[in-house]
Automatic annotation (TrEMBL):
It holds the Pfam family DAO. It comes from Marinomonas primoryensis. Keywords: Oxidoreductase. This is FAD-binding oxidoreductase. Residues 30-378 form the FAD dependent oxidoreductase domain. Gene3D superfamilies: D-Amino Acid Oxidase, subunit A, domain 2, FAD/NAD(P)-binding domain. GO terms for molecular function: oxidoreductase activity. The keyword Oxidoreductase applies. Its EC number is 1.-.-.-.
Length: 423
């Protein structure tokens, strides 16, 4: 293996970020958003467009959290199967949320077009690849539920999956033509640019360390300044730190790491994902893979980065794609996913005018963008509620134990898989 750069491919290949300063002094706006990821940036962009004065205050850089580290699969819908969604929040609310997120990729690609965001956007669909009998059953169930709701998905058999993925290791695949892939950090930076153009104020390197009520609303404090606003949105998801750490208790943070290979040769690219779909599989300890613009294979799996994960990834890729023989990785990086107990994102009104949006459970590109736009419409009086649940969540019992269970489970699985070929 080549010497791994423990840095993200997305950071290395994203266009330059807009130049932003840290928050200094006192500012007054209608809405202040804590966190500069897809949720916060989309909310700011849409609020500014609707004439709401808005500021985003980010602890690090725009896209520092999950938004700049993810796989880049811009999918429709949620992780939860649609029937399960109806069971969890009721058929009426389930339909509203399903319908809103079925068009989430249209929203994402619409913004990319409207603001000319350079983020390696391709819209060739995604493939959910079936592994084993359980995987096939899962895909058949999802297919039936999606078709019943009018989604234009196709269930591919083993031969069709093989020709699309370029590997004979999958017995089926669910193809969703509504979806596509993006360079996620470039998309986050593009949203920041668009929000600035619409008049939003953005600050970086300004961790919010205190939030207090005032007679007219709220004030958020950083080391250098403060923002007074009628409303505050905590859009910090799995990365809730400093003065908003409390929010993190409602979610289990799960690590997911990715490796990016050297650019593949033209001969390799002719058979590996020739149509450039993004892929994830049906295994309980899931993995994902896709190509970037330079023809690198980006492969990811649950768990923190380290030699176990990279050894497992090398072996798994070799099994899937013998043509690669010995894959050489150039980059590796890790992100934190916020799993909510019901696998749904929630907007909690913590107190009057203080909101928190989190719990995307690994599906936040489309949902984060849509929820941001809906928050703007809600605050502007253009809609009565959001399509995601607006409920107060209870603390997750045994949160730390659950986090360790996932982490140790993924580690053990990867260790075990190093000596057992996939079936
Ligand atoms: C490895 C990985 C792979 C994923 N793959 C996909 C995928 O392929 N498709 C998909 O749809 N979704 C995917 N997701 C999920 C998606 O990335 C997230 O749901 C989404 O990015 C959440 O966006 P956000 O804006 O809510 O939060 P984030 O992007 O996490 O942003 C939160 C921000 O809040 C800031 N912050 C925290 N505390 C403070 C504070 N006190 N003051 C100021 N700022 C603060 C953080 O620095 C951070 O930048 C993946 C996630 C991960 C981690």
């Amino acid at each position: 293996m080549s010497k791994l750069l423990c840095d993200s491919l997305w950071r290395a290949s994203a266009p330059t970020a807009p130049v932003l300063t840290s928050l200094e002094g006192r500012l007054e706006v209608d809405v202040v958003i804590v966190g500069g990821g897809f949720t916060g940036l989309s909310a700011a962009l849409h609020m500014a467009k609707l004439g709401i004065s808005v500021a985003v205050v980010e602890a690090q850089e725009v896209g520092f959290g999950g938004s700049g580290r993810n796989v880049g699969l811009a999918n429709a819908g949620l992780w939860l199967e649609p029937d399960q969604l109806d069971k969890t929040i009721g058929a009426e609310a389930g339909k509203i949320l399903y319908d809103a997120l079925a068009v989430a990729p249209d929203y994402v690609y619409g913004l990319i077009d409207e603001y000319g965001i350079e983020c390696e956007a391709t819209r060739h669909g995604t493939l959910h690849a079936g592994v084993g009998k359980a995987g096939l059953v899962q895909l058949e169930r999802r297919y039936e539920q999606l078709v019943r709701r009018g989604a234009p998905v196709q269930l591919l058999n083993a031969a069709e999956a093989q020709s699309r993925i370029g590997s004979g290791k999958f017995n089926s695949a669910l193809f969703d033509p509504r979806a596509g892939t993006i360079q996620p950090l470039a998309y986050a930076r593009g949203l920041a640019d668009a929000a600035l153009k619409e008049g939003a104020k953005l600050f970086e390197f300004s961790p919010v360390n205190k939030i207090e009520p005032t007679p007219d609303g709220w004030v958020i404090h950083t080391d250098g300044g403060e923002v007074h606003a009628e409303k505050v949105i905590l859009a910090t998801n799995a990365y809730s730190e400093h003065g908003v750490k409390e929010q993190a208790r409602k979610f289990v943070p799960i690590f997911y790491s990715q490796l990016a290979s050297k650019p593949l040769s033209d001969a390799q690219l002719a058979s590996i994902l020739p149509n450039k779909e993004g892929v994830w599989d049906t295994c309980t300890v899931m993995s994902s893979f896709r190509l970037d613009k330079q023809g690198r294979l980006v492969f990811g799996g649950m768990g923190g980065e380290g030699s176990v994960l990279s050894n497992w990834a090398s072996q798994r890729v070799k099994e899937m794609y013998p043509i690669l023989n010995k894959v050489e990785w150039d980059y590796c990086w890790t992100g934190k996913i916020a799993y909510s107990e019901d696998h749904l994102p929630h907007c909690q009104q913590l107190q009057n005018g203080l909101f928190s949006v989190a719990g995307y459970s690994g599906r936040g590109i489309g949902p984060g963008t849509v929820v941001g736009a809906e928050l703007a419409q809600w605050f502007a009086g253009q809609r009565e509620s959001l399509s995601i649940p607006t409920t107060l969540l209870r603390d997750i019992p045994f949160r730390e134990l659950k986090r360790m269970f996932y982490e140790v489970g993924a580690h053990t699985y990867h260790l075990g898989q190093q000596s057992h070929a996939l079936d």
